[in-house]
Design goal:
324 residues; alpha/beta; Rossmann fold; five-stranded parallel beta sheet; two-stranded antiparallel ribbon; 13 helices; 15% strand
């Protein structure tokens, strides 16, 4: 059997059922504000459960910031927002050592990065120097100032939004920083029904304050721990490895998936299986998360102006069989 599903115990099944119920409650609460985007909401939560960071890219006015605010509200964790602009400096993000005249010594004043949920709004409107201030934070969960390392709160979840790189005043994120984001999603235009609801109702952003915190820190830890325990069979690992190798060996790819990208795919597939109420990964889980995990990491040999790889991920899925 390809999914290699293990035989679940009664206790694990009951625990899994409670977690699935909590996840559905989270999705339903966010959907009261972010209309018609069930799939994107689930991907965002899967990213959190995988202990990764989320990049939301789309045109202005598509609800990127609204989704980020809604996620922070239902989590109930400390939340800070930084508007990235061309004059933003690294100290505006991570903080700085300031001289205390009373104590006659420098004291570190933490910046907004010291929060459990950080919204980096329009991250690609800042210069590469400001963007790089997040590199250590996102990877190591700490920042270093004047040779001293300062740990960040737990959990530390970065939600970054960015406008398409073709728009005026943007600085494309370098590959090294794109690779720090576990997933990249797009919201797209709403379907007619959801858009009609928006037109007939009040501004969705005004309803964010009415959202209830659904998830506690302990519950998040339990779900993240459960995600790591989702069963991954040898045939599924073989399938993932063939996808990764195809991205590296096919001549149409200038940049293939790195080992970090391969691990990101595994973590995301496990989270998606959990979101679907299963204790094991099936090929459909891998296929569902592959675009949001791989597209921002891939680049075609004839396409050096954009990081989008939608056609490349489709090529991977079409060319690589589930069964060898």
């Amino acid at each position: 059997m390809l999914n290699g599903s293990p035989s679940p115990t009664t206790a694990s099944t009951a625990s899994h059922s409670l977690e699935h119920e909590l996840i559905e409650k989270l999705v339903a609460e966010i959907e009261t504000v972010v209309l018609g985007k069930n799939h994107q909401i689930r991907l965002a939560l899967a990213c959190l459960f995988s202990q990764g960071h989320l990049l939301i890219e789309d045109l202005p006015g598509m609800g990127k910031t609204t989704l980020a605010h809604s996620l922070a509200a239902v989590l109930g964790f400390s939340f800070k927002r930084v508007q990235f602009t061309s004059d933003l400096l690294p100290v505006d993000i991570i903080g700085a050592a300031i001289f205390d005249s009373h104590k006659q010594q420098f004291q570190f004043q933490p910046g907004p990065v010291f929060s459990q949920v950080l919204l980096a709004d329009e991250i690609n409107r800042a210069t590469p120097k400001a963007q790089s201030a997040l590199l250590e934070a996102m990877e190591e969960r700490q920042v270093s100032v004047d040779g001293v390392s300062h740990p960040l709160p737990e959990p530390f979840f970065v939600i970054a939004t960015q406008n398409p790189v073709s728009q005026t005043g943007t600085f494309p994120l370098p590959e090294s920083q794109l690779d720090r984001f576990l997933m990249r999603i797009e919201l797209g235009y709403p379907d007619p029904r959801a858009e009609r609801q928006m037109m007939q109702g009040s501004n969705p952003r005004l309803r964010i304050d009415q959202l209830k915190a659904v998830l506690t820190l302990e519950q998040l830890r339990q779900i993240q721990h459960r995600t790591e325990q989702i069963h991954l069979s040898e045939p599924i690992l073989d399938y993932i490895q063939r996808l990764v190798h195809f991205s590296r060996q096919c001549g149409d790819f200038d940049l293939g998936l790195s080992p970090r990208g391969a691990l990101a795919l595994i973590r995301s597939a496990r989270s998606w299986a959990l979101m679907e109420g299963r204790e094991y990964v099936i090929p459909e889980d891998v296929q569902q998360v592959l675009p949001c995990v791989a597209e921002h990491r891939l680049r075609g040999g004839s396409n050096h102006t954009t990081h989008r790889g939608a056609s490349l991920t489709r090529q991977m899925l079409d060319a690589v069989d589930v069964l060898e």
